[in-house]
Specification:
- It contains seven helices and 36 strands.
- The chain has 555 residues and is mostly beta strands.
- The chain has four domains: 105 residues, Jelly Rolls (Sandwich), CATH 2.60.120; 117 residues, Immunoglobulin-like, CATH 2.60.40; 94 residues, Jelly Rolls (Sandwich); 110 residues, Immunoglobulins (Immunoglobulin-like), CATH 2.60.40.10.
- Strands 12, 13, 14, 15, 17, 18 and 19 form a seven-stranded antiparallel sheet that branches. A five-stranded mixed sheet has the order 1-3-8-5-6. Strands 20-22-27-24-25 form a five-stranded mixed sheet, with no helix packed on it.
- Strand 17 and strand 18 form a beta hairpin.
- It is elongated.
- It starts with a helix and ends in a 5-residue tail after the last strand.
- 25% of the residues are buried.
Length: 555
Amino acid sequence: LKMSWAWFYLPLRLLMAVCLCHAVRAPTSTFKSDLFNFYHSLILANGKETTIHLLKDIPKRYYFVVEEGRAPAPFTVTVTPCDVPIEWSILRHKASATFLGKAAHGDHDTQEISKSPKMPSTLSTIFNYKGNSVETYVGMSYYSALYMLEFLSTERDTHITVYLTTDTTSGHLYPELPLDPRIDIIGIGHTTVTLAWKHSPSVLQHRENIQYCLLVNEKHNYKSLCAAETAIRSSGMKVPPMLALSLSPYLREPQQVMILSNSELSIINRASGGEVRQICVGTKNTYTVPNLSASTQYYFDVFVVNLLTNASAAYTGTFARTLEEPEPKMTELKDGKVIQVVLDGKKQKQYSLQYQARHKRIQFTFQLCRGQVQVHITKNGKTVASENVSGLRYFSLKGNMLDTYLVQLRSTEQSNSSVKVQVSSHFHKPLFPLLPDSLKIKSFSKLRTCNSVTIAWLGTQEESKYCVYKRRIEEDQVWMELQSADRCAGPVSRHRSEKVLCKYFYDINPQRAVTTETIKGLDVGTLYLFDVYLMGPSGIPVRYYSKVVKTRKKC
């Protein structure tokens, strides 16, 4: 296509002829409307994808030309709605060879145009469509003609992409779909669904530049990647412009999680309406989607993506419902025995413990090791306690012998949580130590020097052993260390070189049960992590909240 100024003035010539007629026979508002519509009309780029924004109820027109001398000439137009259904049409304006020749040779005299009341041409609609599917029109032009594309959205403001090409010999912008573009479901589990699809011919021809990407969500299928990204944005999330792009610009989005493993890129976008999972799997045409929820209906879409052009084509989407969650295994609690339970926060599975009372009064003890845990206790089917636990928590319950207690545990965080559990009828023999009102460690800024730090912590009325440990730490490690600390792990998990001291103390008056310690021999301007362990009479440790302190740079 020759990109001369003649082709820019060609739609102007056509429009001016129409406007002159309207000026004689129609009201002024109609004439203004024609001018307004012209300024919303543009020449459509040939050989590249164009993004077009549509305002509600305002048509937008684009033009392209098939030149004299090239006919018969094939052309294709592909339109991808990115949101709501739209209406679009292709109209052909057949002009005489004399007129097209003048336009091609740059006859731009506006005065001459205004004197031409007519132009030897006819306008006819050759294609129209209404919907939100990706639609392609393939045509053949047997004479020189001006074509007009008209787009209209009647629901709301939206955007679309349009691809026009008059060169069918240079390959395809969009990857090709197989003759059967359906996705087959070949396996369904409680938390997995296995999919398979036929290879795209583009993968077989250009393997290094093509890959498959999956979209998994709980709402509905999407007919294009453009539509999927628009839907995700409308739910308040930032979306990568294409699934195959680099990880780095998006790693810090709070509502987005990216996972790269075994050459597979997974992007999980979270919002109030659920999550949309995007997975790029290279050129494999089978994939098992992991980490799904049981008894949940999911919609699956597969797109074949051209990495060089970012263009994509959609397979026919499908859906499946995962299997029902099997009944959780019941673990029997034994009197006086401590067990540690790890809870999967991602799958939000419940862990169930059962205990049959041998005494009328019993006590459940929960020591939170990591994360946060919701505890729900029933006695003979009736709820007797339910709350989120932190630190060390006791539940003293009264009932009858042979009552059946069911304890259900669940992580309230996305990350894994862990908790120690004990049930006992022997109140006079506690396994866990008596705890102070607070497990925080305090540091004194005014007592800091270049090589020493002073810390303090609360004790109890019961004589107990306290051990202090220290470790050098980098600033970028602080958050992870504080979040991942296992408060059930005792000093045995620490290296000998980290030990500072152990000492016993108590005070009958809890208001005075405070001890301080000055740790010396530290490095100048260095960050340290300090831990205090309280050792109970049975040897079960309780770890205070870690404290990070930095020595002074100058003294």
